[in-house]
Design a protein that fits this description.
- The chain is of the alpha+beta class.
- It has a single domain, classed as CBS-domain.
- Helices cover 40% and strands 22% of the residues.
- The protein contains 7 helices and 8 strands.
- The strands form 3 sheets. A 4-stranded mixed β-sheet has the order 1-8-7-6.
- Strand 7 and strand 8 form a beta hairpin.
- The longest helix is centred in the middle third of the chain and has 12 residues.
């Protein structure tokens, strides 16, 4: 696996903006048979990723955080701010409201071995590829890595 990410990545990947409707993103995922989309701002800078996992929030709803009552007080057993985030994500109508806003990415000059390690450790199926200015220039998936291994 001495190839670089640039050698096997898909260039000019399909991406969406934070203003894209969730319905449009769902349609793109279904039509293109892909499981996630990079989210870019007006300048093409990577700002998030929207995946099937993010979109399934729409169907599942959100459970209230566990709590106990003590002397007429509610004591949350988990951070209620996290619950508020989950509610916002579940009710969102745009990609910006539902996306994961801390995308894990890689630069094109890194070895495929490094990309595979990141995907394995972070349990992600795809890595957006960015340049030094965080501009989206490609995407590498687990399938790309497997195809490269099969070709070697």
């Amino acid at each position: 696996m001495s190839k670089t990410v640039a050698d096997i990545m898909t260039t000019d990947p399909i991406s969406v903006s934070p203003e894209t409707s969730l319905q449009e993103a769902i349609q793109i995922l279904a039509d293109k048979k892909i499981s996630g989309l990079p989210v870019v701002d007006e300048q093409g800078k990577l700002i998030g990723i929207i995946s099937e996992t993010d979109l399934t929030w729409q169907a599942t709803g959100v459970e209230p955080p566990p709590y106990i009552m003590f002397l007429d007080s509610v004591i949350y057993l988990q951070n209620p701010a996290k619950h508020n985030q989950e509610v916002h994500k579940a009710l969102g109508q745009t990609v910006g409201e539902a996306m994961s806003d801390r995308p894990i990415s890689i630069q094109s000059d890194k070895l495929v071995r490094e990309a595979a390690r990141i995907m394995h450790e972070k349990k992600v199926r795809r890595l957006p590829v960015v340049d030094a200015q965080s501009q989206l220039i490609g995407i590498i998936t687990q399938g790309d890595v497997i195809r490269m291994m099969a070709a070697e």
